[in-house]
Write a structure and sequence with these properties.
The complex is a heterodimer of chains A (484) and B (307). Chain A has 20 helices and 16 strands. With 484 residues, chain A is of the alpha/beta class. The mean pLDDT of chain A is 91. Chain B is α/β, with parallel strands linked by helices. In chain B, strand 1 and strand 2 (27-33) form a beta hairpin. Residues 1-10 of chain B have low confidence and may be disordered. The chains are: A alpha/beta (484), B alpha/beta (307). At the A-B interface, strand 3, strand 5 and helix 15 of A face helix 1, strand 7, helix 8 and helix 9 of B. The complex binds flavin-adenine dinucleotide (FAD) (2 copies), iron/sulfur cluster and FE2/S2 (inorganic) cluster. One flavin-adenine dinucleotide binds next to strand 4, strand 5, helix 2, helix 3 and helix 9 of chain B.
């Protein structure tokens, strides 16, 4: 696509990056409304003007699924937002979601050449703008659905991986049924990521679209318990199964006192607040132990920990403190969340690690015993590893402690499917290109294969799986020995 | 396609109550349509249900199931808001969400002499395992305990599921006077050799049983009623302490080796939301009829929406 922008490159680079309008931090730290409000049309047009339309666009190279960003931005510049949305959707099935939650600073925007001297093009904000424009326009037509093939696919798990695969497969004319263990669809997008970052209505819109395209959904089915993979293939006659069960099992620290009342996994805390809507306690029944006027600490440095600490703040915590054993530069959370959290009054206690939780005589948490840490040599992954400073233990007062130090594989499918090959950490072994597992007709992708990753990688894995499943269903060929 | 009419073109599943009856004071039994669960259920497993859009998820043991009819039977004691609302429902009503069967099935072996101790609603929870143990050729002694005669439930079924049966009430209004542990001690004092014990009921009761039997080296299981949300291992809220190991009651249990269970931690964790629960129950009592009407209206509109 050629560069239709007449403005000289030099002048484009002088335009300042359009700021994202946001709710006032004082106000938003007391409610669950979405923090970022979305670019206005005029701002989006200006922002699109900034792109210098690189010959070899590094934004595209650094996008995990190769979204044709340069072309999308050009279409926005031309004012054809629906065409821009369509171009986005060629590579990304969930643009309204990834536009909000992708760690753009490590991906497209991290690659953008404008970032070398100034601020990169606000690709994430533009992505969200066109996706929201498309859905608000009501002009989002349903894609063409191929005539029925007579083949059927069972998808286990309704997170971004499963949803993306479902959309592509149903378009190819296959019958698709998604089985979900919980009572709501969307996986982490619903029970993990809070409303103030990703409104539930956006996930609902995506699910409703899939429904209209003919995808069937069955909630309250735990694969491995309610039905096994073998039963799905034999008694329920599915021709292929796609396992997209995610990495939802919480990790704890394994330190003394973790059973005290007031100590939660981030998953439990977020599930109570998001899935069971405990933030609306006057209306909903599931309680979450009161954060109001209490000291809350959250352990971890990723998006999960960040979501938990900002949620605690919104539930009225007196202090909401993030405790992380490395320093801020090593935090895996999105930069934007770190900034937002700070604006909202979240305290950061870096280079700190709890070694024990201390309770009162009734078993309620009152403090965390913490060690101060320092950074040593980089580990094999390149991050500097934290080392305890001897004799530095001190008590940090806390009535609520939330552990957000990562998750591991959901195990129920693996334990009920003996011929499914797994890694030593119980992730499913699947070919990175074809997503085929060791079991004929069974494919796997997303966090259940890679471990906790990102929404965009999950989406990409779902689409890759759809291609490969379609291939298998049409050719009937199962190349053996694909995975070792 | 399938043996059971499970595969529908639409993806909406209704869990209709086909039978509801009171079986004791504030204890009610329901037979509910849930074909997937009915086909897979094993003794010792449970389900999790949610009554309405704003309701919490609560675990209940599956007493029995009929795979052909596609139904499961549950028994509920009204002690808080959700269990009270459930107890208001009748045949013809529906339950919004039911997921299961969850948890590990009871280990059924040929032990020899088994003693099962259960307190009122715990009786319903222990019945499927008692039945299975008896079918596996064990000599099953069932000791049912209750505060008083109104809370003695399933007498006939208990007799059928056991080879020897005792009823104990706190006030002596039915069966013998005293706690289930008194009967257990009597049997031991009389020289009975016990190979396996299962205790299902309030935590203090299970702890008292464990203190007696594990000291004697008798293999003892207890069914732990920790607070659950998802029931799939995803939240860790149901974690219990076994020795110094953390286990998730929903996927590793609910039955655990009693000699390892830290009952104090279980009691402490189960009390976590007590204030909130009491408040919620009081509010419910005040608005009971309204809530029930609302629930039925919501379900009807769901039904219409998916029709
Ligand atoms: C709190 C939090 C915040 C995050 N923030 C970001 C972010 O800002 N940006 C980003 O890119 N990524 C973020 N992530 C990571 C991202 O959400 C995940 O990588 C992504 O959701 C993985 O998608 P998935 O579909 O593979 O798995 P999931 O989203 O975990 O979905 C799996 C689904 O399968 C279901 N399931 C599991 N077992 C069974 C079974 N046996 N039977 C039936 N169903 C089953 C689960 O209930 C779930 O609904 C975050 C994660 C968390 C937890
Ligand atoms: C594996 C298992 C099987 C069970 N089987 C049965 C059964 O067959 N029949 C029966 O009547 N009861 C059973 N229970 C107990 C039942 O789940 C609780 O009585 C119910 O959740 C109380 O909800 P409520 O809103 O009415 O009461 P609340 O007022 O909310 O709570 C009353 C008490 O119930 C417990 N409780 C509250 N919420 C939960 C929860 N989400 N999960 C577990 N416990 C909770 C707490 O200890 C609390 O103090 C079982 C529990 C477990 C864990
Ligand atoms: S790298 Fe930046 S400037 Fe270059 S095409 Fe991509 S968005 Fe435009
Ligand atoms: S109920 Fe959530 S892990 Fe057991």
């Amino acid at each position: 696509m050629h560069d239709s922008n007449p403005l000289p490159l030099k002048d484009r680079m002088k335009i300042a990056r359009m700021p994202m309008p946001e709710l006032d931090p004082e106000v938003r730290s007391r409610n669950f409304q979405e923090v970022t409000l979305g670019l206005k049309q005029s701002a989006a047009l200006t922002e699109a003007t900034r792109c210098i339309a690189c010959a070899k666009p590094s934004c595209v190279i650094d996008c995990p699924v190769g979204v044709k960003i340069k072309d999308v931005v050009a279409l926005i510049y031309a004012g054809d937002f629906l065409a821009a949305a369509a171009k986005l959707r060629e590579d990304n099935a969930l643009p309204a979601i990834t536009g909000r939650v992708c760690p753009q600073e490590n991906q497209c925007e991290g690659g953008c050449v404008l970032g070398k001297k100034g601020a990169p093009v606000a690709i994430g904000n533009l992505e969200r703008f066109v996706a929201d424009f498309e859905s608000e326009s009501g002009l989002l037509g349903l894609p063409a659905i191929a005539p029925p093939t007579g083949k059927s696919v069972a998808i286990i798990g309704s997170g971004p991986t499963g949803l993306s695969a479902a959309g592509d497969l149903v378009q190819k004319g296959h019958r698709v049924r998604v089985f979900e263990a919980l009572h709501e669809l969307g996986g982490v997008l619903i029970y993990g990521i809070p409303e103030f970052r990703l409104p539930k209505s956006i996930v609902k819109t995506e699910v409703d679209n899939l429904r209209r395209m003919g995808v069937e959904f069955e909630t309250n089915v735990v694969a491995g318990k309610s039905v096994t993979i073998d039963e799905l293939m034999q008694s329920e006659c599915y021709d292929a199964v796609f396992v997209a069960t995610g990495a939802g099992l919480p990790r704890f620290l394994g330190v003394p006192g973790e059973h005290l009342n007031g100590v939660y996994s981030a998953n439990e805390f977020l599930t109570r607040v998001n899935l069971m809507r405990a933030y609306n306690a006057t209306d909903y029944d599931a309680p979450v132990y009161d954060c109001h006027d209490r000291d809350v600490i959250v352990v971890g440095g990723g998006n999960t920990a960040m979501d938990a600490v900002r949620t605690a703040r919104r539930l009225g915590a007196r202090t909401a403190t993030l405790v992380y054993r490395r320093s801020e530069t090593e935090m895996p959370a999105r930069r934007e969340e770190i900034e937002h959290a700070r604006q909202e009054g979240v305290k950061f206690r870096m280079l700190t690690n709890p070694i024990e939780f201390v309770g009162d005589s009734k078993g309620w948490l009152i403090a965390a015993r913490c060690m101060k840490m320092e950074l040593g040599e980089p580990d094999p992954g390149g991050r500097r590893s934290p080392i305890e400073i001897e004799g530095s233990a001190y008590l940090l007062p806390a009535n609520v402690a939330i552990i957000g130090v990562g998750t591991t594989a959901n195990p129920l499918v693996q334990s009920s499917t003996p011929d499914l090959k797994t890694t030593s950490h119980n992730y499913i072994v699947a070919d990175p290109i074809t997503t085929r597992t060791s079991k004929r007709g069974v494919f796997a992708g997303g966090d259940i294969v890679t471990g906790g990753a990102t929404v965009i990688l999950a989406m990409g894995a779902g689409r890759k799986a759809a291609l490969s499943i379609h291939d298998y269903l049409t050719t009937g060929v199962w190349e053996s020995e694909v995975c070792s | 396609m399938m043996a059971i009419g499970l595969v529908k073109s639409e993806s909406y599943v209704m869990y209709r109550i086909v039978e509801a009856r009171n079986v004791g004071l504030n204890i009610k039994q329901f037979v509910v349509e849930a074909p997937r669960i009915a086909r897979k259920q094993r003794p010792g497993q449970f389900l999790i249900l949610r009554l309405h859009e704003k309701g919490e998820r609560i675990p209940l043991t599956i007493k029995c199931s009929d795979p052909d009819a596609g139904t499961v039977t549950i028994v509920v004691q009204a002690i808080g808001k959700t269990t009270s609302l459930l107890s208001c429902l009748e045949a013809g009503d529906s339950i919004l969400d039911i997921v299961g069967p969850l948890g590990q099935p009871s280990e059924i072996e040929s032990y020899g002499t088994c003693v099962i101790l259960a307190g009122s609603v715990g009786t319903a929870m222990a019945l499927p395992t008692a039945n299975a143990l008896k079918r596996a050729g064990n000599h099953v002694i069932f000791i049912e305990g209750a505060r008083n005669t109104d809370l003695v439930v399933f007498e006939d079924e208990v007799r059928q599921a056991s080879t020897e049966t005792y009823f104990m009430t706190d006030d002596g209004s039915y069966g013998e006077h005293g706690l289930v542990t008194k009967k257990l001690k009597d049997l031991l004092d009389a020289g009975l050799r016990i190979d396996f014990v299962l205790a299902v009921g309030p935590v203090p009761m299970m702890r008292a049983v464990a203190q007696i039997t594990t000291a004697l080296g008798i293999k003892t299981k207890v069914s732990l009623n920790s607070i659950m949300i998802d029931g799939t291992g995803m939240c860790g809220g149901c974690r219990v302490l076994l020795g110094n190991q953390s286990k998730f009651a929903c996927v590793d249990g609910p039955e655990f080796d009693a000699s390892l269970v830290n009952f104090e931690v279980l009691m402490q964790r189960n009390a976590m939301y007590r204030d909130k629960e009491c408040q919620s129950l009081r509010q419910f009592e005040e608005h009971k009829q309204g809530e029930l009407a609302q629930l039925r209206a919501d379900l009807a509109s769901q039904d219409a929406h998916h029709a």
